Amino acid sequence: MPGDDIIYHPSKLISQQYISEIRLKRDEISSFDQYPFSLPAVRHLDVLQLHPAVTFFVGENGSGKSTLLEAIAVAFGFNAEGGSRNFRFGTRESHSELYKFLRIAKGIARPQDGFFLRAESFFNVATEIEKLDAEPGPGPLVGPSFGERALHEQSHGESFIALMVNRFYGEGLYLLDEPEAALSPSRQLSVITRIHDLVQQRSQFIIATHSPIIMAYPEAHIYSFSTNGIERIVYKDTEHFRITRDFLANPQHVLRHLMAPD
């Protein structure tokens, strides 16, 4: 069950963050030839140290970054399709069993808030909120905590920003899977501002992203997922930064190369 493999560390340093490290229980895996254990990122995973404030997972589609982020979320008790730890809906059982083989090391402090954001299933989360509020019950409505306007009445990008501004309260653990989806560059800058506000309120983020803007958050840990496994790198060494820099420095040169006849 999620939570059975959570270790609590009493040290002062570790207690300042909600999750300090992720460890793969390699001795319990019968074969690394089957998905998701066949993914290079999982096959080579041993221990992953997380930053107390912000940790980024970056890499190509299919590299395993979202798979690992999902597994961390489920192991911590979040719904596989997203939402807070109170959400218990499922439109399609699609998450892997990787979460069963993760050991999560935690500090003494426990998050007072938390949310797992998946860009690809956020529509389902918004639908579940409307469903919950339509059912009679003694508790308060869920929708107003996400802002004055219903999430389905906003664009994809607007609803993401509304979520971060209205629903993220601070002192929380927030796992975000490609939060830049449907966001303009200026909105991505707004996301950095909001992340920093929440970090100042003792929050911790684990973010899988392709955005060279968002991953520029200072002093974060950046883990690159590739066919060689997982490697911690600095921001300017990420492929996302280098490709974006080279393109913006001379877009016509890059385009001529891309469009040149074979």
Q: Secondary-structure element sequence? A: EHEHEEHEEHHEHEEEHH
| CATH uppermost class | Alpha Beta
CATH architecture: 3-Layer(aba) Sandwich
Give the CATH topology. Answer: Rossmann fold
Tell me the major beta sheet. Answer: 6 strands, mixed
The low-confidence runs, each spanning 5 or more residues with pLDDT under 50, are 8-14, 141-145
Rg, Cα atoms, Å: 19 Å
User: Which structural category do the helix and sheet elements fall into?
Assistant: alpha/beta
Total DSSP helices: 8
What is the end-to-end distance? 54 Å
Mean pLDDT: 82
Strand order of the largest sheet: 6-7-8-4-9-10
The total strand number stands at 10
Q: Estimate the helix proportion, in percent.
A: 25-40%
- How many structural domains can be distinguished in the coordinates? 1
Coarse morphology? globular
Write the layout of secondary structure elements.
Layout: E1 6-8, H1 12-15, E2 21-24, H2 40-43, E3 47-49, E4 54-59, H3 65-76, E5 102-106, E6 113-118, H4 122-134, H5 156-167, E7 172-177, H6 185-200, E8 204-208, E9 221-226, E10 229-233, H7 239-249, H8 251-259
Parallel strand pairs: 1-5, 4-8, 4-9, 6-7, 7-8
Antiparallel strand pairs: 2-3, 2-5, 9-10
Helix pairs in contact: 5-6, 7-8
Structure description:
This protein has 262 residues and is an alpha/beta fold. The protein has a single domain, classed as Rossmann fold, CATH 3.40.50. Helices cover 31% and strands 19% of the residues. The chain is built from eight helices and ten strands. It has helices at residues 12-15, 40-43, 65-76, 122-134, 156-167, 185-200, 239-249, 251-259, and strands at residues 6-8, 21-24, 47-49, 54-59, 102-106, 113-118, 172-177, 204-208, 221-226, 229-233. The strands form two sheets. It has a six-stranded mixed β-sheet with strand order 6-7-8-4-9-10, sandwiched between helices. Helix 6 (185-200) links the parallel strand 7 (172-177) and strand 8 (204-208). Helix 5 runs parallel beside helix 6 (185-200) and helix 7 (239-249) crosses helix 8 (251-259). The longest helix has 16 residues, at 185-200. It is globular.
